Amino acid sequence: MRNARPSRSPLRETEGAPLLRRLCRAAAAAAALAAGLALAGPAQAQASGGQELRVVTYTGLRVTDPIVTATYITRNFAYMVYDTLFAIDDQFKVHPEMVREWSESADKRTYTFTLRDGLKFQDGSPVTSADCIASLERWGKRDSLGQTLMGFMAAMTPVDDKTFKLELKEPFGFVLEALGKPSSYVPFIMPKRLAETPINKPLPEVDGSGPFRFVPSEFQPGVKAVFVKNKDYVPRSEAPNWLSGGKVVKVDRVVWMHMPDPQTAADALVNNEVDFLEAPPFTLLPMLSKAAHIKVEDLMKTGYQGNMQLNWLQPPLNNQKVRQAVLAAVYQGDYLEAQIGDPKYYKICGAMFTCGSPFATEVGATQTHPPDLARAKALLKESGYDGAPVVILQATDVAVQSPAPLVTAQALRAIGMNVKVVSMDQQSLFARRTNPGPVDQGGWSIAEGAWQDADILSPATNGSVNARGRHGAFYGWPQDDEIEKLRDAFVRATDFAKQKELATEIQKRAYEVVTYIPTGEWHVPFAYRDNLSGIVGGPVPVYWNISKK
């Protein structure tokens, strides 16, 4: 069924392929300015010598703290400059990264970790056990799986400068999976003095021990970020495999630039003004595939799940009947045609825990079929909906995500809801999404985005089924005691059959109360010039191991 075009619903008659073109035209003026600023830096750098990799990122980098925000561009930034204790390979197997050796006690309650030799931060100080513990504590206050791990934690204590222990109150079967979590939020290791920063305040500076050094003097938020090779970094000896293994840097500089106009970015790649283009719009893939010296490839191998976050704290979506009406009114096919267009890149799938994964199930999903508008209207009437405004946030600078809010708006208007779409860049959307207040005080009702498959493999990692409310849930702040009891049982279960049963119950309940709505799955190819080699695939675009002829 992956390649089958979905049935057309009534909502598709006025929304469709022209949407991306309208968005591109609207951004043209800003694109010209941003492109000029972005391309000026690389030309100057090349004149001073050194090999440079020029990357057009899928959006502009504004926030550099990977714990303050879950945005993928900030996560990608953090992989450049920070390192992790563990990392995953292409089989999702966890391997030591900063850790040299580790052990587990017979009762599975004590884990001991010893760091590799030669690890140091950019300020020259060595990475210590105290840095690791402080970093894990900060991450554990924000991340869903980290919160769960900390709930099992009795103590984290240093043995010496390079060795520390995690002592659990009872066995927890996802310790290494937590420490090697590949995507937002990632337990990156930073100096203790920075890791002690509260999670609601951004880090005052960047000081990592990763393969690159960030160059703050060349940072233009939203437009340009520059990295240089960290000559003090000691990579592992193993060959790179996804995020694991040796992170060997083979260029002197990496320049990230953002161009709001996708056509401008594609032209820059074809004209050899840039080397690498992250996530080009699907409308441009046929042109790029035919261009000389350009390769188009699905390097990440993992897909994305579109997600609609619903704000449980503010009316009207604090009403379960209203949330159920929204679920009944939408159809994944509408989103996938508007966002992707080519069925070979997308799949209709109701699984909350990654389509095709061991925990995947269709239980509870209704948005995989054309919408039941009559049922949606009936639910809305039962809810007592009084015309309260529904504010939908739209990120216009991420081409694949921009159409989704417009599809949602049309669906909700079709059942009689009062909808307003508020457009902004993605970084502004992520900032506004943190506001739990009313819509007339800068709040929101619906925020559209996407999870990478690596983030949502199970109830332990999918933050959108975290139902802890204001005390730990993902933005939208769903709160449901039944889901939390099921999730707690899931992380304690050691038998796969029991885990599978619990995952199905969690998804069933999550659809019943509508913690969030998955809007379809897709894969995103990248485009790059054929003089690049050694590109490491995986769930995160990384720029170590790349050679440039």
Please provide a brief summary of the model.
Helix content is 30%, strand content 19%. The protein has 549 residues and is of the alpha+beta class.
Helix percent band = 25-40%
The shape, in one word, is: globular
How many helices? 16
Weakly predicted, low-confidence segments: 1-5, 7-49
The CATH architecture assignment of the largest domain turns out to be Roll
Total discrete domains = 3
CATH superfamily membership of the largest domain: Dipeptide-binding Protein, Domain 3
Mean pLDDT: 90
Largest sheet, in brief, is:
7 strands, mixed
> Strands of the biggest beta sheet: in what spatial order?
10-11-12-1-13-21-14
Strand content: 15-25%
CATH topology of the largest domain: Dipeptide-binding Protein, domain 3
Write down how many β-strands occur, each being a DSSP E stretch of 2 or more residues.
23
> Rg to the nearest angstrom?
23 Å
